[in-house]
Amino acid sequence: KAGVTQTPRYLIKTRGQQVTLSCSPISGHRSVSWYQQTPGQGLQFLFEYFSETQRNKGNFPGRFSGRQFSNSRSEMNVSTLELGDSALYLCASSLRGAVSYNEQFFGPGTRLTVL
Amino acid sequence: AQKITQTQPGMFVQEKEAVTLDCTYDTSDQSYGLFWYKQPSSGEMIFLIYQGSYDEQNATEGRYSLNFQKARKSANLVISASQLGDSAMYFCAMRVYNQGGKLIFGQGTELSVKP
């Protein structure tokens, strides 16, 4: 069974540009969550999608957005990039993402560098 | 507010010895889960072990065990018989079940296993 895949793995952008990251969850998983990891702030929750609906959102500015498609694949978009957006962006999928135990499987991440 | 605290930024352990990584958490909710993840230098988050707030017995998964002390709000990870491949960052995380799949992470502990 294939794991969570994220594309691209590495990305270099300049300030002011926008970027789209993609995440394909494990087959059958309907929940996708996104996290940002930086040396200073650690791992921070961005948002969670379940059955194409955003169910939860972290404390990030509106420049960060996402969506989920009917096949559960998810994209996140960052507009007007800032230097501080340089980070490892991790995607995690789970079967339901609802109440009770539900293991989240992480992808390898996309490392974004903003110059 | 929910919070995870890992007070050991870095730790060393001799190969084949046991090591305990500390984690304390804060939440006023009664239904939650506690997770430990391993992150090698490659960046991918690897799930290690889970403990539910209503579980009376400590969780174990192979060489990993979770020392759950609910009254003290601690969820320490114990790795027995350390191996060189255990060198990595270790993150403690919590999910409050009425908040969907959102994981709250601690700052992590970098474990180095010496031969």
Can you describe what's shown?
The complex is a heterodimer of chains A (115) and B (115). By secondary structure, chain A is an all-beta fold. In chain A, 0% of the residues lie in helices and 52% in strands. In chain A, strands 2, 4, 5, 6, 9, 10 and 11 form a 7-stranded mixed beta sheet that branches. A 4-stranded antiparallel beta sheet of chain A has the order 1-3-8-7, with no helix packed on it. The model of chain A has no long low-confidence stretch (mean pLDDT 92). In chain B, strand 8 and strand 9 form a beta hairpin. With 115 residues, chain B is an all-beta fold. The model of chain B has no long low-confidence stretch (mean pLDDT 94). In chain B, strands 2, 5, 6, 10, 11 and 12 form a 6-stranded mixed beta sheet that branches. A 4-stranded antiparallel beta sheet of chain B has the order 3-9-8-7, with no helix packed on it. A two-stranded antiparallel ribbon of chain B has the order 1-4. The A-B interface holds A 31, 33, 35, 42-45, 48, 50, 55-56, 58, 88, 90, 92, 94, 97-109, 111 and B 31, 33, 35, 37, 42-47, 50, 52, 91, 93, 97-108.
